Amino acid sequence: MLQNHIIPTLDSAEPNQATSSGIKIWIDLENTPHIPFFKPIERELQKRGYLVVFTARDAFQTCDMATANGFNFTKIGRHYGKNRFLKVLGLCIRSLQLISFVLREKPVLALNHGSRAQILVCNLLRIPSVMIMDYEYSRTLPMIRPKWEIIPDVISKTELGCRNNERIRKYLGIKEDVYVPEFKPDASIKEQLGLDKSIIVTVRPPATEAHYHNLEAEFLFNRLMKKIGRTDNVKVILLPRNKAQEIEIRTNHPDWFKDSKTIIPEGVVDGLNLLWHSDLAVSGGGTMNREAAALGIPVYSIFRGPTGAVDLKLEQEGRLIILRTVEEMENKIRFVRRNKGLSVNRPKRETLKEIMNHIDFIIDCETTTK
User: Fold this and answer.
1) CA distances from 89 to 75, 77, 95, 176, 241 (A)
2) C-alpha–C-alpha distance, residues 277 and 187, integer Å
3) Pick the CATH number of 24-181+350-368 from 3.40.50.10860, 3.10.290.10, 3.40.50.10190, 3.40.50.2000
């Protein structure tokens, strides 16, 4: 159930009081995948007596999802588009905006999943930062390197370049294993989106504004939609990354939407629930692919940036099919109805426990040395 929450502004937000532990942890939410990932982590931190404060960037549907999931956060900054100069400018502006929040809240530790602005502010103010990450090819500058990193076991430390190996901690599994085991299907989505007896394909277009974007992914995406268009009894639930991408797709490809062949949901949709009620998924990004793999949903990747170790491992295990050419896309994708009556696959996963153990270790290191 969605809940209404007041989002404090920079001017009105009151500083939070530290709990009995005396330790306040700051988490920055920059993108939509951060919402489900940090929800169980926040719960575990609170169980340990830590106070958790959140900031969120007004980008994609991050703030809407954070509100829907019950986060109490301060909205700071926005997305500045795909232009590299504007990206750098946006990073600097948001970093400056975050400083007043940090000076007011005085966190002991910062936690993120790839927030460059948070890391930059922490380095400037000498606050230890922890970046949990799962893609080794993300670009970073020396000033935007965290003090600590927590990464999947399949990523080699040598791939991370000049880092302090003593401050790199590893966990088994994938980040989606942190929250997918807690997922519970909700059949009301079928009525909400008008899902009928067609074969349902959830599709996520490539991230055209990301630094790793490759035009090959857009080509594969267009060919995929044409393939679906000529296939009977198949319906697409399309998840654009932002409003601009939605407008571009609707303008350039009105034929995709004829007779409701393609549907774009209004508002925020529970991604895991949508995947569970789909027959297969195709995505130009990473998180949705790995969420589908964690749920046991047939999933195909049209991501054409450098393939990370996590996706290669999933491919080796047969849990993800990576489409590298048009021929593979035409021949490998199978539009087959999936038995949605099966129970959610919940093998014993220790990923959340491992990550929390690493965070506890880091907090202990940082607080005992001061």
Assistant:
1) 18, 12, 10, 31, 21
2) 8
3) 3.40.50.2000
List, in sequence order, the alpha helices (H) in the chain: 34-47, 62-68, 84-105, 116-125, 188-193, 215-229, 243-252, 271-276, 287-295, 309-316, 326-332, 351-368
* pTM score over 0.85: yes
Write down the number of H helices and E strands in the chain: 12, 13
Buried b / exposed e along 24-38 (16+ C-beta atoms within 10 A): bbbbbbbbbbbbbbb
Q: What is the fold of 186-332? A: Rossmann fold (3.40.50)
E strand or H helix at 74, and its extent?
Answer: strand 73-78
Summarised one tens digit per residue, pLDDT across range 336-350 is 999 886 656 555 579
Q: In what order do the strands lie in the sheet with 262-263?
A: 262-263, 234-238, 199-204, 280-283, 299-301, 321-322
For residue 176, what are its two tokens?
Answer: 């989606």
